[in-house]
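Box S2. Input/output pair 1.
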Amino acid sequence: MKRLSAVCMAIALVLLTSPAFAQDFPTVPPNMKEAEAKGLPRVGAEELKAFFPGVAKFKGTTGKHLMTFKPDGSVDRKGFRDTAGKWRIDEQNNAYCLAFTEAPHGFGKMHASKENCFAVFRAPDGTHFFDYDVANGFYAHVWRRAKGE
């Protein structure tokens, strides 16, 4: 009887920790080279224009947040260091770029951060997108459109 309980517990643990149950965002290749090697399609500037403006849920290296991209080129980030900034599409590099207004180390005078641009790859599920920093090729975020968008 103890063996049966142990087997059932092991099966339950495997199921609960499988990617389908463990997270609502898919596993991401760690850098742009691996995303390309896996054959993930890169999203071009024209397709990016269909997503922005809009609202998207992001999960990055620093946590989850909701970003609202507005038609005037402004963006609001809620959930991780709530802040505002600017966004734009970089057509030449098939990327989108963000620059936020933040206080260094969480206090003090507010200032505009350096602009970061991101290459976007479509995840195999067709719903999520992987962002890689154009400057270094490393993973930055995984995101999807917010429901109703």
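Box S3. Input/output pair 2.
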Amino acid sequence: MEHQKLVNLKLDTLKDMYANAAANLKTALLEGADWEELQEYRHDVTELEIALYKKIRTGQGLHPAGNQNRTTETT
């Protein structure tokens, strides 16, 4: 999965895909899978997190530096 392509999906679809990927990773971790075996799961979760972040930011029309939680002081 590449987050550049995932951003084109609908937000609800991305959220569902992320929930499934995170559940798969959690299950594998709880079953004691080796760290190397988890690489694909970890990669999928990371790519989906990046895509969700970008999708949400784009939907709000905000550049990270333009976020309302940032303040600029004028003197």
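Caption for Box S3: The chain has one domain: 3-59. The first helix runs from residue 3 to 6.
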